[in-house]
Amino acid sequence: YATEHGRANVLWPLRYCLTGKQKSPDPFTVISIIGIPETLSRIDTREETLYPHVMIHMRQLLLALALLTVL
User: Fold this and answer.
1) Tens of pLDDT along 22-55?
2) Rounded to whole angstroms, how far apart are CA atoms 53 and 59?
3) Does position 56 have pLDDT exceeding 50, yes or no?
4) 3-class SS at 26?
5) C-alpha distances in angstroms, 14 versus 9, 29, 32, 49?
6) Which string of b and e fits 23-62 if b means at least 16 CB within 10 Å?
7) Diameter of the chain by CA atoms?
8) What 8-state DSSP symbol labels residue 51?
9) Who contacts 26 (Cβ-Cβ below 8 Å, separation ≥6)?
10) What is the phi/psi pair of residue 21, to 5°?
11) Which residues are within 8 A (CB) of 69 and not within 5 positions of it... i.e. 6 or more apart?
12) pTM for the whole structure
C-alpha cells in the first residue's frame, strides 16, 4: 500500500494519528512504545477525520501483526 501511494502519504497520517503532532518519532517507534492495543485505539478514535483510507489499511496491518505475535 505504501509503495502504491507513497510512503509519506501513508506514514505521515499514521504519525499524526498516533501522536497528534506534525513532527514526532517515526510511527514504528511510537507503536513499539505504546503497544498495539493503544495504537488501534488511537486509530479508531481518529480514522473518521484523518485520511480514513490510510487508517483502514494501517488498522488491518496492525491486526495481522497482533495475531502473529499471539501465535
Assistant:
1) 788 988 899 889 988 898 888 777 766 666 666 6
2) 10
3) yes
4) coil
5) 9, 12, 14, 12
6) eeeebeebbeeeeeeebbebbeebbeeebeebbebbeeeb
7) 35
8) -
9) 11, 15
10) -125, 150
11) 36
12) 0.65
Report pLDDT for 33. Answer: 93
Q: Grid cell 488498522 — which residue?
A: 59
pLDDT given for residue 71 in this prediction: 47
Cβ contact 62:36 at 8 Å = yes
Q: How far apart are the C-alpha atoms of 25 and 6, rounded to whole Å?
A: 19
State how far the Cα of 36 lies from the Cα of 49, in Å rounded to an integer.
21
What is the chain's length? Answer: 71
- Residue 21 clears pLDDT 70, i.e. is over it: yes
